[in-house]
Design goal:
The structure is a single chain. The chain has 119 residues and is mainly α. The protein has one domain: N6 adenine-specific DNA methyltransferase, N-terminal domain (Ferritin), CATH 1.20.1260. The longest helix is centred in the N-terminal third of the chain and has 26 residues. It starts with a helix and ends in a 16-residue tail after the last helix.
Length: 119
């Protein structure tokens, strides 16, 4: 299942200008996987805290969470194509907002407020 998904991603990225092998975009793919992993981990920690009736504090500001900028959804849970970032808008968001946010990101929450994620 995942093998076909990665092959599809590979095929799309390889068609991009200037890409001749996987090495040309491995860094971008790693970042995508990292950001998605952090989002999934945060959701898991939040669900766990809710089940224990405890509070949860996300380590990532809402506007930088994967589900907000990468896959925005409408009130019915479907992808909101009006809010979805693509092309130059996506590139600008990542370069001008997302990367600078993570560049200054530090894990300095006290243990009692920490979501348990360390980067």
């Amino acid at each position: 299942m995942f093998e076909q998904i990665f092959k599809n991603i590979d095929d799309i990225l390889r068609k991009d200008a200037g890409c001749s092998s996987e090495l040309d975009y491995v860094e971008q793919t790693s970042w995508i996987l990292f950001l998605k992993y952090i989002d999934d981990l945060e959701k898991e920690k939040e669900t766990s805290a809710q089940l224990r009736e405890e509070s949860f504090v996300s380590i990532i500001s809402p506007e930088f969470q994967w589900s907000v900028w990468a896959v925005p959804k409408d009130k019915n849970g479907k992808i909101d194509y009006h809010k979805e970032l693509t092309g130059d808008d996506l590139t600008e968001f990542i370069n001008q907002k997302l990367f600078p946010y993570f560049k200054k990101f530090k894990m300095n929450n006290p243990p009692e407020q920490s979501s348990g994620v360390s980067i």
